[in-house]
Amino acid sequence: MASKLLLSRLRTLAKPTHHRFINPTPIFTLKYQTLVHSRPYSDAPQPPPIDSKPPSINGDNPLKNKKISSSLNQTELAKFSAIAETWWDAEGPFKPLHVMNPTRLAFIRSTLCRHFGKDPNCAKPFEGLKFVDVGCGGGILSEPLARMGATVTGIDAVEKNIKIAQLHADLDPGTSSIEYLCTTAEKLVEDQRKFDAVLALEVIEHVADHAEFCKSLSALTVSNGATVISTINRSMRAYATAIVVAEYILNWLPRGTHQWSSFLTPEELVLILQRASISVQEMAGFVYNPLIGKWSLFDDIGVNFIVYGTKDSE
């Protein structure tokens, strides 16, 4: 019952107050006084398999790979290592991320400029701020953040990704200052690194332990700093579109890129973040328009969604 009530509140509160996202007033504001949830995961049913294969494409549930000191999933690392050289191929396996990137950046620019009191219309609104891009891959998010003035650190556990990211960043004086490290969020915590904003886009669904991963993101964030996470909802519609259609019909992504059981629902992510001392302030959905080949921000969080939260005062 608690799960249903919270989901109902999410749907009610995640309604747009403005039709255009560029308006500096928040589109989706989540206000939680008390969140009561007796289980860390919802009772959403497992979707029926297609030919009895897709839901278990990668074998065992990644949670079985849990390590005490790390949220890494070795199977996921191997998958991304195999296609690392294609990060900057706009028509390759990472095409969906390239197409989605402008929309992700629109959300980041709007929410973080408001959070830090910056002018979203200036060329370098993030000047003077330290950002970390967790699971940076080839740097397709790190680079535009650096061009917007942020001091960026990009980290990834796949060495090939870091090498590709560094080589590409060095081609442009505006991005050559990015600090790329082959490491994990947990290791940065051990090194006592802190950042004004911590970003992990399309990453949490590939880790072995969601809760531990979010605790590390929180530990990397300064008090009253910002955290931005995007991922895929564990819904039947997401299973149909993000896995069946994207991987098996349209071949936008290599088969096995995603595992439905590793997705999180919006209510689960909000609760996990809250337990990690991060309060979600805004949530928006990504909706793809196949007629124009572009993504837009909307109130539909049924498939892809993004959240912005603030680190509680210590």
UniProtKB/TrEMBL annotation:
CDD domains: AdoMet_MTases. GO terms for molecular function: 3-demethylubiquinol 3-O-methyltransferase activity; metal ion binding; polyprenyldihydroxybenzoate methyltransferase activity. Coiled coil: none annotated. S-adenosyl-L-methionine binds at residues 104, 135, 156, 201. Pfam families: Methyltransf_23. InterPro entries: SAM-dependent_MTases_sf, UbiG_MeTrfase. Mg(2+) binds at residues 202, 205-206. Residues 40-68 are annotated as: Disordered. Pathway: Cofactor biosynthesis; ubiquinone biosynthesis. The keyword NAD does not apply. One of its GO terms (cellular component) is extrinsic component of mitochondrial inner membrane. The keyword Phosphoprotein does not apply. Belongs to the class I-like SAM-binding methyltransferase superfamily. UbiG/COQ3 family. HAMAP family: UbiG (MF_00472). NCBIfam families: UbiG. Component of a multi-subunit COQ enzyme complex. This is Ubiquinone biosynthesis O-methyltransferase, mitochondrial. It comes from Cinchona calisaya. The gene is COQ3.
